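User: Teach me something about this protein's shape.
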Amino acid sequence: MTARERQLSDELNRIRSTYSFNLGLLLTEALFRKPWKIPLLPLSFVLFNIRYIKQGRVKKLHIEENSIELDENVLMLISTTEEGTASLERCAILATEWLNEPERKVVIVSPHEDYPGFLPKKAVMYPIKDPKLLHKQKRSEWNALCENLISNILESHRPQHAIFDGPYPYRGVLNSIKSFPSATWVWFRPEGIDNSTLLTQSEHFTKTERFSISDRPGVAMHESRRLPVKKEWKRILLDARTYGSHTMKHDVKMHNIYNELGNDITVVRPYDANAM
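Assistant: First, the predicted structure itself:
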């Protein structure tokens, strides 16, 4: 049974155990299927409420006994490929810092094929196919596979902390959050691009962290260094943040970086032929 099937099965069991559903069954049986029970309906209603209260107490104890106890020393990281290897590099930094304590463990889910060259050897790795390599018709199958993989990791390793590193969360990840809301879910994404859709997706996570490569508020991921530049070199910055924006349904709000650049830097935008 996949994680999605298990979730639907739990939802069906929840509906069947509700008060209104069982009361409807009682009235249907007494009024339509077995009319001779109508005189006994007041007594049946009292017995039904007593039985429902007792079953509710037993069910609550059963849920508490079977609830998954999460491990505070386990961290799960999910990297993406939208930024090349940048997400994997950030996950490698977080994994290395987390493993400084001997009792801690890191589990990483990544679509990068060259992950062995980035991650620490102690990290537990779960590879998954890159969704960008699939046709749109296969994306739903990939999300189901992603959800099932993450759900199995959560059940096996029981991480208390889970971090998704990427500009946009996958549907398979969001479905996993619904199945395991007791874990601490953090969305680690780059700053500078905000829209209404992203704000809606943030509600699924316990916390959202935006990292920065400058001195602006955010999590600094690397130390700024000034490298020697030869005078005959031309300094060019490719601003590709609007690439693919014509396919978006919502307007994209971007941080103005041009005021922070020096006069010796030429900014090149997509389809900007005059700058080349």
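Now, about its shape. The helical segments are 3-16, 19-33, 41-66, 86-98, 139-157, 171-179, 196-202. Residues 154 and 257 are 40 Å apart (CA to CA). If you'd like, I can walk through any region in more detail.
User: That's plenty for now, thanks!
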